Amino acid sequence: MKFQRKKLAGALAYALGVGGALVVVGTPVQAADIKVDVTGSNIRRVEGEGALPVQVITRDDIEKSGAQTAMELIDRLSATQSLGNFNNTLGEGTTLAGFNGASLRGLGTQRTLVLLNGRRVAPYALSNTSSPSAAGVDINAIPLSAIERIEVLKDGASAVYGADAVGGVINFILRKDYQGSEASFTYLDSEHGGGGTRRMNGTVGFGDLATNKFNAFLTVDYVNQLSLRASDRYVSHTAYLPQFGVDRTSGNSLPSNISQSANDFGPGGGTAFKGTHNPGNPACLPPFSFPTVPSPLQCRFDYASVIDTIPPSEQTNVLGKVTWQITPNHQAFFEASYFHGDFTQRISPTPVSSSFTINPVLLFPSSPFYPAAYVTSLGGAANQPIRLGWRALEFGPRTDELKSDTWRAVAGLQGVIGGWDYQAAVRYTQNKQIDAYTDGYLSEARLLPVLASGIINPFGFNTPAAIAAGNTAKIFGDASSNKAKDYGLDAKISNEIYQMPAGPLALAAGIEARHEYLSLTNADFLSSGDIVGGAGAIPSLTSSNRNVWAVFGELSIPIVKTLEGNVQVRFDHYSDFGSTTNPKFAMRWQPTSNLLVRGSYGKGFRAPALADISQPNFRTNTNNSFSDPIRCPVTASGNDCDLQFNSQRGGNPSLKPERSDQYNAGVVWDVTSQLSVGADFFNVKINDVITILAADTIFANFAAYAPNFVVRNPPDLSFPNLPGEIAFVKEPTFNLGKQEVTGVDVDFKYRMPTAWGKFTAGLNGTYLIHYKQSDPITGDMVEFIGTAGAPQGAITRWKHYASVDWEYGPWAATVSQTFQNGYAEVVGTGPRRVSAYEIYDLQARYNGIKNVKLTAGIRNIFDRAPPQSAGVGTFQEGYDASYGDPRGRMFFGTLNIAFK
Question: Which of 205, 311, 678, 826 gets the most CB atoms within 10 Å of its CB?
Answer without folding.
Answer: 678
